Each structure stands twice: as structure tokens, then as C-alpha cells.
UniProtKB/TrEMBL annotation, chain A:
<keyword id="KW-0479">Metal-binding</keyword>
<feature type="region of interest" description="Disordered">
    <location>
        <begin position="1"/>
        <end position="30"/>
    </location>
</feature>
<dbReference type="GO" id="GO:0097354">
    <property type="term" value="P:prenylation"/>
</dbReference>
<dbReference type="GO" id="GO:0005965">
    <property type="term" value="C:protein farnesyltransferase complex"/>
</dbReference>
<keyword id="KW-0637">Prenyltransferase</keyword>
<keyword id="KW-0862">Zinc</keyword>
<comment type="similarity">
    <text>Belongs to the protein prenyltransferase subunit beta family.</text>
</comment>
<dbReference type="InterPro" id="IPR026872">
    <property type="entry name" value="FTB"/>
</dbReference>
<dbReference type="GO" id="GO:0006629">
    <property type="term" value="P:lipid metabolic process"/>
</dbReference>
Automatic annotation (TrEMBL), chain B:
<comment type="similarity">
    <text>Belongs to the protein prenyltransferase subunit alpha family.</text>
</comment>
<dbReference type="GO" id="GO:0008318">
    <property type="term" value="F:protein prenyltransferase activity"/>
</dbReference>
<dbReference type="Pfam" id="PF01239">
    <property type="entry name" value="PPTA"/>
</dbReference>
<feature type="region of interest" description="Disordered">
    <location>
        <begin position="156"/>
        <end position="177"/>
    </location>
</feature>
<keyword id="KW-0808">Transferase</keyword>
<keyword id="KW-0637">Prenyltransferase</keyword>
<feature type="region of interest" description="Disordered">
    <location>
        <begin position="387"/>
        <end position="408"/>
    </location>
</feature>
<dbReference type="InterPro" id="IPR002088">
    <property type="entry name" value="Prenyl_trans_a"/>
</dbReference>
<protein>
    <recommendedName>
        <fullName>Protein prenyltransferase alpha subunit repeat containing 1</fullName>
    </recommendedName>
</protein>
Amino acid sequence: MGGNRRTRRKPTQTQGKHANSTQKGPWSSDSATLDSYKSDKYKFSIKAFSVLTSLSHLTCCVVCCQCLDASRPWLCYWILHSLELLEEAVPAAVVSDVCQFLARCQSPTGGFAGGPGQHAHLAPTYAAVNALCILGTEEAYNVINREKLLDFLYSVKQPDGSFVMHVGGEVDVRSAYCAASVASLTNIITPTLFEGTHNWILSCQNWEGGLGGMPGLEAHGGYTFCGTAALVILGKEHMLDLKALLRWVTSRQMRFEGGFQGRCNKLVDGCYSFWQAGLLPLLHRALFKDGDVTLSLSSWMFEQQALQEYILLCCQNPAGGLLDKPGKSRDFYHTCYCLSGLSVAQHFGNQDLHHELVLGKEENRLAPTHPVYNICPEKVAQAIQHFHQLPIPAQKGATACAEDQS
Amino acid sequence: MAESEEEVDVLVQRVVKDITNAFKRNPNIDEIGLIPCPEARYNRSPIVLVENKLGVESWCVKFLLPYVHNKLLLYRQRKQWLDREVLVDITCTLLLLNPDFTTAWNVRKELLQCGVLNPEKDLYLGKLALTKYPKSPETWIHRRWVLQMLQKECSPAGSGQKEQQGQVEPQGEAERSWHTERLQRVLQEEMRVCADAAGRYPSNYNAWSHRIWVLQHMAKGNLKILHDELSSTRLWVSMHVSDHSGFHYRQFLLKSLLGELGQSWERLQSGALNLSPLPLADALQVHRSNGDGTAGAADDHASAVPQLFHEEMELCTDLIESYPGHETLWCHRRHVFYLWHHWRKNSQGTGPQSPVLTHTAALLSEASDPHNEGRSSQAMDVDCVPDSSKHGGYTQNTKRLKRGPVPPCPGLPSEHLFVSRILSSCRSPEQGRFANAYRKWLDSVIGQ
């Protein structure tokens, strides 16, 4: 699959393969098999993602299998985010189609559902809002009914500060992240909306340093990212035991594979390239704000090169798309999160201080991603700018809706 | 081969009926599975029942699933009525093939609410689904809903309602104990279901999280169950030394026990608690129900904690030595030691205030004495360190709260000794690395 990537910007100061990295992680000592790769340039290139296939999936919103029937906004987000990381433009007609489809997924009582006619749920709500912000047109922004969205968030808010995933559903820390993400992007945060939420999230941090799905549960990569990112949005990340969290997440990078595992003693998985590695930018910023002067000004506190090698060498399907580990089949979820992790590993810093480490060809360079929302930073800025011109909707009561369960 | 819509209809109805009949014929079915069978052979049912195993030949799934799925959705959209029996059978078929189909579970919630479906039957279906899909999130989530419903039914408020409906007081008492027994049975069954699912998939987060949830919601303050669970999982974790979730469960049990024992102990000590207090009478009652029957609850509580930690560290030591290079074991050691270390620090902060606690205070000062390790060998009680712990505790004997001399308590020096011992004798590079990392952790986190 030939790539149609044009070099749109002047060459950045990429450091090429096996840069003179001062990082002396365990990786650099396992160089026996690596040497043979050094000469094979092509092995480090990111095979062009099958752009046409993904676009067609987007327009028809083809359901791959029954279990994704309640995840169609997710498909939109995973695909759109992958395309924006690859800096592939989406045709205007497709943009409009996706907007209209997502509008049909919006529930009359607020929030977005997994598909037209289904009940609103925080996860597809998160995905839909992210997808619309990636699209970034007026039409996209106008799809979101902000007043109803606020109602929906109140309807799933619990007295202890947590959120259920949907009315009548279960609590877990993902919900706080989904709620915080959409509320902050669309500017609907009222004084009471997140009352108690940060304390509830904090109670999910356990002695290991990571966060579990609920207080008392085992620390887990996905939940840890959601809890931490939510706290960052709420401005309370410093209340975590940051050092313990840092210890935990850095221990999750696998010394042989270079990728990350989700929990202690489990196998590597490409998607944790984002859920776990994505914590390091958040921690870096939090520790920096805390006044830590020993922080690096050029790299994150994980072995960036090794992660890039794992993704490029082990997580690509020859026909395009990315995956968990060799032997697994490709899917849009893994494509999205492997690419997101690759982006995190390539880009350090922000607009003011930016340092790149791109393994392999210049073509491998992806667009940077926002470490909290996981959409491109310009899209975040644009959305926030747009929605902050609008007033915060009037606060209705914080009571749960007695929604018809059938 | 069925092709026309009518033929599919007939086939599917027959299959659904076959599944229902299989359950009627054998109420002890304990596992389900898919039999790889790409083509229908002979003119026979794809439902196979052998001993207690129910199999579905794979060729029929592509007809069966879309059909029943569609039927259920039509019912949900109120386009086609289905009566209750049919709903039970259809949802059963659907969920055995795809237990993450939330709508089907929700239909069953309605059937449960109007009393058509029995909760234990529904839990049984979930249990079967988990034999094939041990992680299925929707199954676990639905289970918690059913358990909550059961709890409400069996609570004093629930039976109170029934009393209002015309039952006499004395029957209320019997009913209460029936409810308690029922909940007990359900709880024990949940532990079994979780253990089974944990064995079918490594580090099964959902299964272990559910197990924790059940204890948090259905066994509050129940010391006996916490101890029983420590006993019954001891063998399991010894056979799954890389299962971080299993060890995390033991960490949860220890922490809960600490919490419970600590609460009652602090209550005895002083009146003030910033935790939600367990009334003293209840604390002692719960303790007595553990079957110990000895007097001096405070003493038992005080000595129980070091005993617990001693046993857990012994188990950990034994496994680390037997199975070099398993990160989970070292992680477990950190957690147990961390808990112990902080418990000691907190306990030392509160001085003895009554004669009962002098023993405790002495216990603590002994425990914090780094040279204490040898002292227990002078103990009057010859078997203060039970034999089974020397052999790694592969029995399931419950070690109850024991009065008697203090077992050797873990401390920083003894941990450093342990690390040195491992490093000097180990041949596995991973083991060496974990030992060194543990030492660093002791210095940087504990030693501070």
C-alpha cells in the first residue's frame, strides 16, 4: 500500500534511528537483534494506513460485528483521530455525513448513544464529542445540544462524586473522565457538576501507585489514564501521590518488548502505548507545576525509542492498520491507540518547548496529540475557543432522571 | 440445509426448544461450549448434551443468533409481543451465545422484577455464560444488579413488607433466618463462580473485582468470611504465581481485616473514632462468631494482626523461593510489608490506656525491636509457628486467631536479610533484578 504522504513542512530536526539518546534504559543493552535492523530502513517505516478503507467505514458506519453495534461513535472517533495523526484530510462531504450520523446518535434527553435509538451512555458521548471536535466545523459544533448534555451529566452524577456510565448503570473511573472531557470542551461546567468528583477519583489510587476502576480495585492502565486525565481537567492532579504513580507506570514498560503492559505481570499490548505512555506527559507537567527542577527538557520519563520500535515493528498489519501484538488481528481501536502512543513517543513538550524523536524515516512522523483529550492540540484549542464564546447553560437540578429502561 | 425463511424459523424454534429441554432434563449442567462443526450432518439437533456439558454445534449459530436477536429487538420496540416463557427461553439462548448483549440481560431484569424469573436461576445462567466467557463485563454487571435485588428482598425492610401483607410475627423470625441462610448460600456460590472464572482466564480483572464487590456489599464487617477467603485462596494463588489479580485480592482481604480488627481494637482503647464505628457489642459478637470462643477479644485482635502478617510473609517467602523470577510475588511482598509497616507506625502512635492493652503494647515494642527475631524460639508454645506454614501452607486449614507468643515479625532488617539471602543463592537473572529492585524500594520508600 503506497503512501500518498507529501512532506508538508520543512524537515524537522529528527534524530533518525537509534538517536544518540542519552537514555540508557535496559533497552539499549539488548542490541543484538537490533543491529540487523539498523541497516533495513524500510522496516522502520509506518505502512500507509489504508485511508480509503477507513473513509468508507466512516461514511457507511459499517458495523464490523455485533458487539460494536453500541459503539458506532467510537468507530468515528478512532478513525478520525487516526487520520488526523496521519495528517490525512477528510473530504468535506464525509465531514458533513459524519456530523449528521452523530446527530442521529444524540439522545433527545441529552448525551450520545452507541447508535441511533439507543440510550445515552458516557462512553459514546465522549467519543462523539471528540469526533465532532476533530471535524471542527460549525456544523460539527452545532450538533451538540449543550443544555441537554448538561442535563445528561447531572442525571448520571452520584452523591459521592462519581458518575455512572448511563442511567441505571455502573460506576467506574472512566465515567469521570468522559464527563470531564466533554464538559470542559463544550464549556458546560457549572459549580456543582464535579462536586466531590476529585475526591472519589483520588480514592481509586491504591498503594501500587496506579488507579483501579473503583476504590479498592487493582491498578489498571486504562483506568489510571482516565482518572489522572480527569484530575488534570479538574485541576486537582497534584493531590495524587505523583511519585507513586510515576513508579507504577514506568514499571509497566516491558524491558524486552518496549511496549507497555496494562498491569503487573501481564502481557504487552499496543493500546497501552497510549493509556500508559500517555500518563508520562501528564505527570511531567504535574511535577513541573509542583516545582520539580530535575525534570528533563527533552524527553518523557519512559524509553521513547523502544516504544516506537515496538509499535513500528510488532504492531503493524502488512495490509494497513495496527494491532495489540503480533498474531492478533487489526482493528480500529488498536489503530487509534497505537498511533496515539507513537505520537506521544515522538513528541516531547508543547508549542513553546518542542523536541522530536522520530524513529526511521521522516514519513513516520505523526501529528502531535493532546495528552488529556487525545485529539490534536489545535482541535482542542479551536473547540474551547468556540464554546467559550457561548454561555454555560442554566443549571438544572442534580437529580437522576427516571428514564424508561426499555 | 435450512435456507428459506420458513425453514430457518422452524429450525430456530426447534433449537431454542432443545436448549430449554436440555436444562429440564439435566439441572446440573455446569459448562457450555461451542462445537466446531461447519456443516449440519444428518438431520439432528445441534444441541449436544453429554454428562453435564452443553454444546452447540457451530453451524447453527449463524441462523440462530440473528433470528433470536431480531425477535428480541422487535419485542423491545413493541412491534411483536412475546410471552414470558418465550422471553425466558430466548434470552437464555441469546446470552449463552453472546453474554455481552445488554438488552437481553435487561429483559431478564424486568422478568425478575415481576417475579416470573427466579434470581437463583438467573444467576445460574450467568454462571454458565461465564464458563465460556469468563471476562464478560455485562454478565458481571448484571450479576451485581441481581445480587443487590436479592439483598433488598432479604433485608429486614424487605421481610417487613411481607409482614405487612398479613404474616404473623413468629413467622417473621423464621423468615429472617431463611433470608440470612439464602444470602449466605448465594455469597458462597459467588465466591465459587469468581474462583472458577479466575481459573479460566489469567489475571481476570472483572472476576476478581466482582469478588471484592461481593465482600464489600454482602459481607460487611464479617471477619469470619475474610478469614475463610484468606484460607481458601491460599492454595489458589500458590498455583497461579503470576496472577497479580489473585494476590491483589489477598491484599484487599488483609487490608479489610486490618480495618475491621483495627476498628474494634480502637473502640476498646478509646471512645473516639474517626471511622464509621462498629458498635462494641457488635464487634465482639462478630468476633465470637468466628468460633474462637476465648475471652479477651482485645488480646486476640492485637495478636491476630502480627499473626496475619507473619503468615502472609511466610507464604510470600516460600513462593518467591520456590518460583524464582515472578514479578507478582515481589509486588505482593511490597504490598504486605507496606501494610504491615504502616499499621505498626499507626499503632505505636496510640499508647496503651488500659490493663488489657499492656500485652499489646509489649507486643508492639517487641515487634519493633529489630533483634526480636530470635526471641520467639524461646516460646513456651512449641507449635507457635505451625508446621503447615513451614511447608508453604498447601493445606487449606484455617489458622484462627491464636493467643500465645509473638511470631517473628517482619521488619526492615529482616527484609534486607531476606534480599541478601535471595541474591546470594539465586541463579535467575530476573529474580536478581526483582530482589535488587525490592531492596531499592525498601530504602527509598520505606526507609525514607
